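Question (not urgent): is this output format expected?
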Amino acid sequence: MKKITVLFYLILIVSCKKAQNQTENFGEITVDKNIVHDTSITTLSKYPELKLFNSEKVESNTRTAYIVQNAIFFDPNKKIVRFNDYKAKAFYKGDTLELWLNNYNGYFGNGVIVRIFKNHFKVYDINPNALRNELKFIKTKPLSQKLILNTNSFNKNDSIYGFINYTCKIDRLVEKNFRGYFKTLIR
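Got this back:
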C-alpha cells in the first residue's frame, strides 16, 4: 500500500511539471488603447500593401504590418539575416483569435502565428521548409515575448492594432527576433 501511495505522488508530481511546462510559453496581453495613434501605426496607412507575388490578390489597400525579423546565426562567421516583408491577418477559429504575421506566398514563407485566448497568447513559428499549402511549425524556445493590442475583447470585422516583440532560440546556433507593428481587420 505504501508503494502505491508513493507511486501515486510521483506520478502526480511529474504530471504537474508537464502541465507547468506546457503553460510556460503563454504570454499575457498588454492593452494600450493609444497604440492606434502610434506613429508607426499611422505610417502604415501611408504605404500600399505588399504584393509578395504577381498573381496575388491584395486584400488591403494600405500596409498591414511593418515587422523586422532578425535571424542570428551563431556560427564562426555570426551572420544576421533580416526580413521585413510581413503582412498581418486575423481570423477567428472557435473561441481563439489567430493572428498571422507572415510572408507566405503560396509556396514558402516564414513568420509567426499568434493564438490569442482570454488575455493570453502563444506564438508559433512557421517553418519555411513546407510544401505548397502546407503549414508546419518549428520547435522553439521563447526567450522573451511581448504583445500589445488596442483591446482585449475581439469581434469579427473589428480592427485590431498591435505591437509584437518576440525573441526565441530555434536551436543552439540560431536566435530569432521578431519585432514590429501591425493593423488588420478580424475576419
